[in-house]
Protein 1
Amino acid sequence: MVDNSAFDDIPGTTVFTAERAHQGFPLNQFCMSLMKAENRARFKSDERAYLDEWPMSEGQKRAVLARDYNAMIAQGGNIYFLAKIFSSDGVSFQTAAASMTGMTVEEYAAMMLAGGRSPEGVRSKREGK
């Protein structure tokens, strides 16, 4: 097994490793199911019941119900799969990304139009620099 712990030292970033892919497989498969209109309708009519059909962890299910995308990513969710959830909710990628950063949609858009986050600042949690 590969040691991916060095990736955990990057502040503000969750690297989608093979281990996270394995952990998130049921969550990401659930997300892909939302590509079908009938599955979206079933999910929207009783979210918990639909989630219980998937072998996801309770933490993954709670994160979906709360629409806590950062928690979903921490539990193996891939943003491109998670997009199926916010699309099903009628939420844009930009709005979802803004919520994940704690910014307003306008602040997030301005940051991205200005070139994104600055590379200056803390580059290592461990080293604090």
Note: The first helix runs from residue 18 to 33.
Protein 2
Amino acid sequence: MSAATDLATELAAREADIQMLRVELEETNKGVLALYAELDDKAAQLRDANELKSRFLSYMSHEFRTPLTSMSSITNILLSRLDGPLTAEQTRQLEFIRGSTRELTEMVNDLLDLAKVEAGRITISPEWFEMVDLFAALRGMFKPIVSTASVSLVFDEPEGEIKLYTDDKKLSQILRNFISNALKFTPVGEVRVSARMLDDGCVEFAVADSGIGIAAEHIPNLFADFVQLDVRLQKRLRGSGLGLSLARKFAHLLGGRVAVESELGKGSRFAVTLPTRFDPATAPQAVP
């Protein structure tokens, strides 16, 4: 009788323990569910905030484009002397306005591209083209800009015939950014653009300059959004801080990568490596 009583007592105690564990598990499950719900709310808030930011950038940029286009057109008309001659000082001031308008327009375009990328609305339009045609277009584009004898822009013709199937406009935008930065930070010297086939079937495009170079501590953050170097020349030549970030994002969307090598006082080398044939099946759908 005593053994049966002890067994019943032990079973009752275990049942009580099991019931207590069941209650604790239910409370834990409720807490986990509440945590998941809170995380979902936070994720939704972040998505909404990101969408609002992208929409704001897009709307703001569009609003800026119209007056900037008007300013550029009016300045070009005045500098063409259609309304009469200009003094040297008037010409200098109008050139300053035109240069500032061009810089602001580039900022606006960068902001629009950033908004499109973050909203997932960038369209990749690949087509076949030859490297010599891309270099010829870039050479013609920068010819009016390189107006000083102290800096030379050199395009090395690629060895052999290199054909690519990718978005030439995105690639051109990447290279334009690299070349613009190289010219901006090379007061005296040379900027050299080249392309070469790699063993893995990719093509590497490089823009090397003999400019002021970049300190080692600044290199890891170069391709982040809105990054500007804290150097004297950078303070005088302000930009949006988005060019290199967009170059990295575009390269990623095209299935490629960017890289930089630089030494302070000895120049820099920016490169983008892309597959010769863009494959939408393997291309990433989002940027990091």
Note: The first helix runs from residue 2 to 79.
Protein 3
Amino acid sequence: MKVAVFGATGLVGTRMIEVLGERKFPVSELIPVASGQSEGKMIGFGGKEWPVISAVEALVKRPELALFSAGADLSKIWAPRFAEAGCRVVDNSACWRMDPNVKLVIPEINGNILDDGDMIIANPNCSTIQMLMALYPLHLSFGLKRIVVSTYQSITGTGKKAVTQLFAERAKNRDGADVRLVDPDADNAYPYPIDLNLFPHIDDFLDNGYTKEEMKMVNETHKIFDDYTIGVTATTVRVPVMGGHSEAVNAEFGKPFKLEEARELISGFKGDTLVDDPSRLQYPMPLFAEGSDEVFVGRIRYDESRPNTLNLWCVSDNLRKGAATNAVQIAELYL
């Protein structure tokens, strides 16, 4: 089929094209779409070179599938136009996630809710995807009551500009420059240095004191699990790493459980990999998650301060399962 990829030259769009090839998605024609400054650039795929074109030109080509990863503003304008033209859209932005008429899907969890009438499908936030992949098998058996999560999110979640900022700062820091200074002439992604630093601020702050990223994890959990009784609270933190997002999760359940049961449920769930052997210093780390589609789970232990509660640590490549791979998996449900 003809497949359009919006944001084809960005970090997620690039991964989408890679994943389409790796998973042997039946692409007869790749239609890379990006901003004007990227138009005309050639993208290699399937042994051919495909030119980057505009959204207007892509619509004329009438693709059957469009994977969007170019921001909410563009998705709001163009996703309905492609859908009206008979093109199924999987959107990676926040634009449609909480729309009551658009389904929010992690294929391993709720892919069964999709039907042929769904022309726009929302890809969840990367941090939500990996948390729910880790918790879903436990939720099925023990019933989640409350989640407290702190995230440690890779700069790749911000995009190429953030990666450029990190490595520019790192080069200057090796020269002995003041690490607290931001270059006022640089086109930075963050208002503060990210190298040798972290900050508890991802997306805009809201009136309740939380950020949009934190509230995404709350609202998307309720929608994906179709359970609005689960208490969810989050603190999201940007850290200067590349390989993926990490999360410290405290989860309370309605039923008692044994830790070995929890480990067996996680290790048996497709898409999860258990890495949990403290005696051998084995636990998930973003450095070793990069490039994988798995959600790695470890540090599983009782919360000794509350009954029926455990702590775990999960890590996943936010550009892969957190974005590109999940989107392609959604598309595969229609093959």
Note: The chain has two domains: 2-124+323-332, 128-318.
